[in-house]
Amino acid sequence: MKNDIIMEVKGLSVSYKDNKVIDCIDLAIEKGKIYCIIGPNGCGKTTLIRTMSRSIKPQEGHVFLSGSNIFKLKTKNVAKKMAVLYQSNATLSDATVRELVQYGRFAYKEWWKGSYEEDTKIVDWALEKTRLTDFQKRKVNTLSGGERQRAWIAMAIAQKPEILLLDEPTTYLDISHQLEIMELIERLNKEEGITIVMVLHDINHAARYADELIVMKDHKIFKKGDPWTILESDVLKSVFRVEAQITKDMDTNKPIFYAKKVI
């Protein structure tokens, strides 16, 4: 594995009963980049991210984290390098924001002994990064959707991970909270150097914030590349069955996609 590759997927296949959901995927994730996985419903996006996070064990293939087979690593060793957030995070909702974020430090404890000084500093840092310092005594279940998602992200980054996997982090949020979460993710990447891999439905969000798009179709990776390469090709037509107009966002120089009609 090259030094700039933090995660690598080789020959990955996953089946549910007789249905193949991931079909022989190869994928390399470089350090310090933001990747967005896009594709139509049912193409295998969530299954891929769950297998990369070792929540699902593949029938074939391997996932390597910093060169080591992720399925052979101890949970705490994985947690020190990788944090994961899925769509639904219902557990611990009765905890305070600070208590939730403290759970992100579990990988650094041999057993629960309360907060160490280093843990306290990192929890404070995670709250500050997600702009939740003033909310730390609030119960998670009293927060708005955007605030709650920031709290879960704070818990994830309290692990001090090198890579963060996110499954549709803006689902169920209104437009302003979607932008808030996407801007937070971008800051974590640019300021902290955290590699980001996330599943997104919104193609424009993906194009605006990602360094590379990973397009899935029929349980395979159809194409991978920078947003301009992807959106200016025939991918939208081939994968999403739409004709599109592409313009440039003058602030970011990233492409903006407008669907014109279904093919």
Can you give a write-up of this model?
This protein is an alpha/beta fold and 263 residues long. It is 31% helix and 30% strand. The strands form 3 sheets. It has a 6-stranded mixed sheet, sandwiched between helices. Helix 4 (117-129) runs antiparallel to helix 5 (145-157) and helix 5 (145-157) runs parallel beside helix 6 (175-192). The radius of gyration is 19 Å and the shape is globular. The mean pLDDT is 91.
SSE layout:
Elements (H helix, E strand, L loop, with lengths): L4 E12 L2 E12 L3 E5 L6 H8 L7 E6 L2 E2 L5 H5 L2 E4 L11 H6 L14 H13 L15 H13 L5 E5 L7 H18 L2 E5 L3 H7 L2 E6 L2 E6 L1 H5 L3 H6 L1 E7 L6 E8 L1
Parallel strand pairs: 3-8, 3-9, 6-7, 7-8
Antiparallel strand pairs: 1-2, 1-4, 4-5, 9-10, 11-12
Strand order of the largest sheet: 6-7-8-3-9-10
* Net shape: globular
Distance between the termini: 41 Å
The number of helical segments is: 9
Helix % is: 25-40%
Number of domains: 1
By secondary-structure content and strand pairing, the structural class works out as: alpha/beta
Question: Can you summarize this structure?
Answer:
The chain has 263 residues and is an alpha/beta fold. It has one domain: Rossmann fold.
Q: Keywords, please?
A:
single chain; 263 residues; alpha/beta; Rossmann fold; 6-stranded mixed beta sheet; globular
